[in-house]
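Dear H.,

Thanks for agreeing to be a second pair of eyes. The structure we're designing against is below in token form, covering all 208 positions.
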């Protein structure tokens, strides 16, 4: 093709992937903490999980606790995501508004969903055995996914979904409006993920 061509790529959907420092040490304590929560509350809650156990919200402001130390360690990744976006980054106003854990046993999965009323959402992998289920994002442009010619080959312009193979210590940060799900756990072990939302505190209130 000799025609001069310029492809302008606007409105991309970014997914930020980090490997958390000292994740092995964190995961050892986090796994113990999460299983203790499950022991104390076997019922949990039901949101996007189908068959898995979903915890109530962590008490992330409990000073010195593993969940508090872990939340503080996440700050640099959250701030980096804000800066990559080009958003105004005022550290003292950026907050983890809610954090919880999900344990997916074999055959468990999570249905497609979003996280309303947040700027960012995240998934962190405490335990991720092989074949435990891809993390899948869906194209949020509904017209582009439902009204189009038959594709000849898969490209970044026509893909409907994108699945990520994940590993322990991986942290994904992405727009909270981005539809996502977790495929079925086809391993013989538990898959443990911590999810959380990120917001901005616009008010001068005591959050301690």
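And this is the sequence the design step returned. I haven't edited it by hand at all.
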């Amino acid at each position: 093709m000799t025609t001069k061509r310029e492809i302008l790529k606007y409105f991309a959907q970014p997914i930020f992937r980090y490997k958390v420092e000292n994740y092995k040490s964190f995961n050892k304590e986090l796994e113990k903490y999460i299983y203790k929560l499950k022991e104390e509350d076997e019922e949990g809650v039901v949101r996007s999980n189908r068959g898995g156990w979903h915890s109530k919200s962590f008490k992330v402001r409990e000073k010195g606790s593993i969940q508090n130390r872990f939340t503080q360690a996440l700050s640099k990744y959250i701030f980096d995501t804000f800066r990559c976006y080009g958003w105004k980054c005022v550290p003292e106003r950026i907050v983890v508004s809610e954090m919880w854990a999900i344990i997916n046993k074999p055959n468990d999965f999570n249905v497609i969903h979003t996280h309303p009323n947040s700027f960012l959402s995240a998934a962190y992998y405490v335990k991720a055995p092989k074949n435990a289920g891809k993390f899948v994002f869906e194209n949020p442009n509904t017209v582009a996914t439902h009204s189009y010619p038959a594709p000849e080959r898969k490209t970044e312009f026509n893909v409907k979904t994108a699945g990520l193979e994940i590993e322990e210590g991986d942290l994904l940060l992405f727009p909270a409006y981005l539809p996502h799900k977790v495929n079925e756990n086809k391993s013989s072990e538990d898959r443990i993920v911590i999810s959380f939302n990120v917001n901005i505190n616009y008010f001068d209130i005591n959050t301690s």
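Two observations from my side: The chain has a mean pLDDT of 94. Residues 93 and 204 are 9 Å apart (CA to CA).

Warmly,
E.
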